[in-house]
Each structure stands twice: as structure tokens, then as C-alpha cells.
Amino acid sequence: MSDKDTPDSSSSDDTTAKASTRAPAAGKPAVSIAKRQSNRRKVLRTFLLTGGVLGAAMSGFLPLAYAQKKRLRPPGALDEKDFLSSCIKCGQCVQVCPVEAIKLADLIDGMGVGTPYIDARAQACDFSCDAVQCILACPTGSLTYHKPAGFPVRPGAPMVAKPVLLAKEKDAEPTLNLAERIGVARLTRPEACLAMQGKGFKGPARGAAFDGKLRYMSVDRWKPIPVSDYKYDVEICDLCEQACPIKGAITVEKGIGKDGKPKGIPVVHEACVGCGVCEMVCPTEPASIEIIPGEGWRA
Questions:
Q1: Which residue, 188, 190, 161, 140, is CA-closest to 273?
Q2: CA distance 293 to 69
Q3: How far apart are CA 187 and CA 198, in angstroms?
Q4: 108-164: per-residue pLDDT in tens?
Q5: Which DSSP symbol is given to 122?
Q6: Residues 6 or more apart in contact with residue 181 via CB below 8 angstroms
Q7: Phi and psi angles of residue 266, each rounded to the nearest 5 degrees, phi first
């Protein structure tokens, strides 16, 4: 073999050394592959730990944020502080509600998790039970016909007279044994109200896909039916008045607007108990009229 064909061992060693270790930049030490991988793992752990800390912080913050939103409690509920301290979250009120209006609060409600509430827009309390079964079912008095002596009473909460249930108006005892209202209806978006625009309404109140229920006396005064099954046809919208289960709680006052056209103004009266039926059937989206939870009556 010639000298040209004989491999140079020193040259081979140099090549191997260069392949395994790069010459460091001026003033910087060489970093091995293992070291770089270790650094990347540390950075990744830092990101994960930071995300975990932030997530834990948010999990505590969100319930506090959502807790600021007032919930509409079932009929007969004590004032919020007393209600939260006395409710054992047994769900008995949920089980007896004939229209399934009462739900249990989830984790975002913080201290109120598991407590009953009503989302009137989704399903209002239409008093299909007649005797307010949720109060009868409550084992602790969190829902009660009459507050024990010494318990605070919200201004404007007491009913001047027992509310008359329209479905029972002609019965021997047409009233509900309800001493305090759970809220008050307010026309929160008057600019969207169809009546105030002089517009009518035709068809189901919330469309064919809405699954809420309501007792319509013209259909069956004892049994609630799907709201989507009932068709309205009015020249000036008055669905809130038509659907309200309490006598004299709300009326749509008809008149002539400044433009000379017929219009209506929904007017809430002192008989309002805050059941939420007006909010549920309001055909505008979002609802023009809403229940303000815990609100007292004011003229």
C-alpha cells in the first residue's frame, strides 16, 4: 500500500474531536448536548409551574367574580346571607318543581355552589304547583312562607296583599301564601320593546326550538305546555301581560305615540312577585324586560 493510501491517524483523531466538540465562541464556554437538554427541561417546568399557579389563582378568582352576580332564588327564600348559611343543598326543591325551573348552582358560584336558583330567561316559575311546593319541600326553612322573628326584611320585599293566581281566580282560595317577593320585573331595554315600537307579534314567543314550559289557562289551567306550542297573534305586543300568572302584576298600557301610531308601554305593578314569566316569554333577544333578583317594590 502506498503512503497516499495509508490513513493519517492524527488527521482522523482531529476530525473526531471536531465532530464531538465545537470550538466555543470567543469568551463563551462550550455547552454539551446534555446540558442544553437539561436547560430546556428547566424552562419547560418553569412554564408549567407558572401556568399551574395562574390556573389555581383563577380558579379561586372566578367564583368570587361570578358570586357578585345576584341569583334569583326560589319563592320564599330568606335574604341572601341567611339563605346561604341555612340551605343544606339537598335539592328537594328541585325535585318538586313541575316546570323544572329550579337549578343547582355550579362551581363558579363559589360559596353558593349547590344552592338552588332560577334562570328566568331559560325557565321561569309559573306557579304551576299552585301551593308553592318548593317551600313545602324545604327541610331547613331556607324557603319559607313566613320569616322567623328577628330575620331582616328587605325594603319593598313584603307583599301588601297575597298575590292572586289567575289560574285559581275563580276558586274558593285563589291566593298564593307568599309574604315576600323574590324580585321585581323591570323594563331594562325599553328601546328594544316591541310594544313601545308599536309592533305586534305573531308565532311562538321564543321560537320553535325553545324548550321552556308555561301554564296557559286557555289551553289547560292545570298543566304547563311547551312555550313553543303556543302561538301568539297580536297587533301590539303584550306577551308579558298575557303570560303573567299573577293578577294585576303587569299591564301593557295602550296609547298613541308622538308619531300618531298605536304603541304600548309595559307597566309593572306592586302585585309583581318576581316570578320571571315576563322575562321568559319576551320575544326580543336579549329580553326587553327582566327580573332584578332581590329587588324590592318601589313606585
A1: 161
A2: 10
A3: 16
A4: 666 688 999 999 999 999 999 998 999 999 999 999 999 988 898 889 999 999 999
A5: T
A6: 156, 157, 159, 272, 273, 274, 296, 297
A7: -65, 130
Bond preceding residue 174 cis, omega within 30 of 0: no
Give Cα separations from 75 to 28, 168, 192, 214, 297 (angstroms).
75, 18, 29, 17, 16
Distance of CA 217 to the CA centre of its chain: 28
Residue 211 CA, chain-centre distance (Å), reads: 16
| Strands annotated E in 16-85 | none
Q: What are the beta bridge partners of residue 214?
A: 225
Tens of pLDDT along 216-259? 999 998 999 999 999 999 999 999 999 999 999 999 999 998 88
The three grid cell numbers given for residue 32, joined into one nine-digit string: 454539551
What is the C-alpha separation between 192 and 194, in angstroms, rounded? 6
Q: What is the pTM of this model?
A: 0.77
